[in-house]
Amino acid sequence: MAKQPAPQLTTNPFDDDKLKEECGVFGIYGTPDATAHCALGLHALQHRGQEAAGITAFDGENFHTKRVLGHVADNFTSQDVIDSLPGYTAIGHTRYSTTGGTELRNCQPLFAEFASGGFAVAHNGNITNAAHLRKSLVQRGSIFQSTSDSEVIIHLIATSRFRTLLDRFIDALRQIEGAYSLVSLTKEGLIGVRDPLGVRPLVLGQLDKAWILCSETCALDIIGATYVRDIEPGEMVVITEEGIVSHHPFPEERPRPCIFEHVYFARPDSYMDHMSVYEVRKRIGAELARENGVDADLVIPVPDSGTPAAIGYAQESGIPFELGIIRNHYVGRTFIEPSDQIRHFGVKLKHNANRWHIEGKRIILVDDSIVRGTTSLKIVNMMREAGATEVHMRIASPPTAHSCFYGVDTPSRKQLLAARMDVEAMREYIGADTLSFLSIDGLYRAVNHPEGRDKKCPAFCDACFTGDYPTFLTDQSETDKDDSQLNLIASTGA
């Protein structure tokens, strides 16, 4: 019998049970240090995608691209790399694969040579009719080089009958569904676009005479740039040597930015939807304390994403805040486990209980969400092993019961704990004394909607909690139809 490979466990066993961030995009125009600034900006956006990164720069004559698997800091810090990407304008991308596998050919920015010149694009989001469009394009002769949904945009531009590149770009975007924030590079300049619903974020910044487009304001902070404003939903900005021109080429719709950005995805030091993400998360914790208070000795965050909400919970409840779980930040990405005993140790490689503060205490654990539930089960067990007499779990969002199709790698719905169990069954599964979630109205109150969620006109995309998807899901609809037909065939014995 062939020897089986040793099993692997990622060294972030808690993070593995989180929804995976989408991607991060960065673009800059008007500085000879464009690539260096782009690399720094991508470093600040690393939390939005850890599988791959890439930069494309333009020097006035030629485009230069480097795309790699791995982290920004491991690939874009040497002067030789920066010098190999000369130019006064550049775009970059950090990637977590939601559509298409983890392969170099799927890394972004994607680049194409059109009759009008080179075109590079980096995409944050997900095109929900990409498979449908791809099938049609292939039938018409398009040859795809990747399995990424983003490549559909390039082929739609290439086959458009409009004359100018800008009109071709707009024509392509009018044919796609879903969520997108894009930065693209042409020989004329830098283009940024946000989908009509504004599901994914995109902001405008300035550094001296240079203009910046990026996913979050933390990418502006790292290079000393100034936040100017959010790109509006449905807005296209074109940045050239003549300045900035704003276009609104799409029918106006009621914006539905992703509310989960405020719960987990965005960095807490970012400013999003005219709000401090950190302050919103503290308000979420305060709402959670008001809705689901319990008598206890300590409030303990699940690091790092649960920390701001736990601070808000502690402040509102008057229960002391303590770091009951200590995170080790100096751990490699994977750990080979030769035995079940080492597997148990692997859980503690990144997090460890602060036993001397936990033993003999009634504790409230605050986390941002529950996905599969395996994380919460491990944490509750860790707290009991450390001597906690009671473990109460409080979740700073409603139950995640629906998959996301807008650029987030969500497990299939049957893998989501909240889709399979009610709260009491979930509590029993993770082994907590009590378990409570923030209500959807409480979440809306925390993001400055004091009346809660307007069911007729919600202000955010909250589909992962409510199942209320703001766009049509063409590919998913066709997949469901095919699955139903297969199930019918199977049930009839055909």
Determine the N-to-C terminus distance.
38 Å
State the low-pLDDT regions, or none.
1-14, 333-340, 484-494
Proportion of helical residues: 25-40%
The CATH superfamily name of the largest domain is Aminohydrolase, N-terminal nucleophile (Ntn) domain
Question: What is the CATH class name of the largest domain?
Answer: Alpha Beta
Q: What Rg is obtained from the alpha carbons, in whole angstroms? A: 23 Å
Globular, elongated, flat, extended or rod-shaped: what is the shape?
globular
How many discrete structural domains?
Answer: 2
What is the third-level CATH name, the topology of the largest domain? Glutamine Phosphoribosylpyrophosphate, subunit 1, domain 1
How would you classify the helix and strand content by structural class? alpha+beta
The DSSP helix count reads 18
How many β strands by DSSP? 23
SS strand fraction: 15-25%
Q: Biggest β-sheet: count, sense, barrel?
A: 7 strands, antiparallel
Q: Please tell me the overall pLDDT.
A: 89
Provide the spatial order of strands within the biggest beta sheet.
4-3-5-2-11-10-12
By CATH, the architecture of the largest domain is named 4-Layer Sandwich
Task: Give structural notes.
With 494 residues, the protein is an alpha+beta fold. It has 2 domains: 15-256, Aminohydrolase, N-terminal nucleophile (Ntn) domain (Glutamine Phosphoribosylpyrophosphate, subunit 1, domain 1), CATH 3.60.20; 277-466, Rossmann fold (3-Layer(aba) Sandwich), CATH 3.40.50. 30% of the residues lie in helices and 24% in strands. The protein contains 18 helices and 23 strands. The strands form 6 sheets. A 7-stranded antiparallel sheet has the order 4-3-5-2-11-10-12. A 6-stranded antiparallel sheet has the order 6-7-8-9-13-14, covered by helices on one side. Strands 17-21-22-23 form a 4-stranded parallel sheet, sandwiched between helices. Strand 10 and strand 11 (210-214) form a beta hairpin. Helix 5 packs across helix 6 and helix 9 (277-291) packs across helix 10. The two termini are 38 Å apart.
